[in-house]
Amino acid sequence: MHNTFRLLLTAILVSVLSSAAIAQQSIQWQPTVDVARQVAKNTNRLVLIHFWAAWCGACRSMERDVLGQPAVAAALQAQYVPVKVNRDYFPATCRQYGVTALPCQVVLTPEGQVLGRFTGLMKAGAYIAELNKVASVGRSLGGTFAQTPADRAGNPPAPTRQLSPKSSTAATQVVAPVVSGATGNPPLGLDGYCPVQLIGDMLRGQYQWTLGDRRWGAIHRGRTYLFSSQEHQQRFLAEPDRYAPVLAGNDIVLALEGQQSVSGHREHGVLYDNRIYLFVDEASLEKFSKAPNRYAKAMLQASRGDHSGGQGLR
To answer: How many CA atoms within 13 Å lie on the side-chain side of 59?
Structure first.
């Protein structure tokens, strides 16, 4: 009786493990980020880095309930070249991409530009929706990875509106943003979301993110910003330092206390005194939240001695 039970249990376990293995095989994980970027370049896709660890319970749940779903595998493979990075084995890579919690997904262009990130365990449907949303950001920005077969056949790109040089400040340049290392454009600010609409919405008590349009873009203090309309672009050009994240999106706490220049993330952002502040993690955000006026004043004092990078920090 006991032997029969053990045999039945073994058969069930083998069946479950085999099914999971088959589902996982549909996702073709690349061995390294560099290889994934090369494959993405050759196949006109984006790169998705899946950060995980063996001790992470949420990571195990994600492997089983999300990445093991055929619909997720299909959505992932169609638009991305995926690669897994174990946090314990590659801590430097985690630091490079600002990964502070697991599981974490970071999306890159083939050139290595970060397009977006989403952290934590989510249901399969929400995961697919997030994949599609970030991919839409890539498509809106152009580049060979975002083109349709008709585009690659030679059809002209969508028109890009240019303003005259008189419309921009000395530190702000109107551009036709394309996320590609060959264009010379700097990294995206706010992951391509419109800063003008974000501030306006938050002041009205609405917390939402609206993607910018590549037709309305500007380079300001080392970041490329996109806007949801020409009106929002015009507002930004009139007062860029009012709408751009403080310190070009770098973590103000690390800048003032550790003399470090580290880019903050949207998920650790806050609106204070009608300005956007971004931080690398919750610990840094908590420090700022305990004394926001002190940090803001210290940044203002520092900016008075740096006319090239601190104009309008108030």
So the answer is: 16
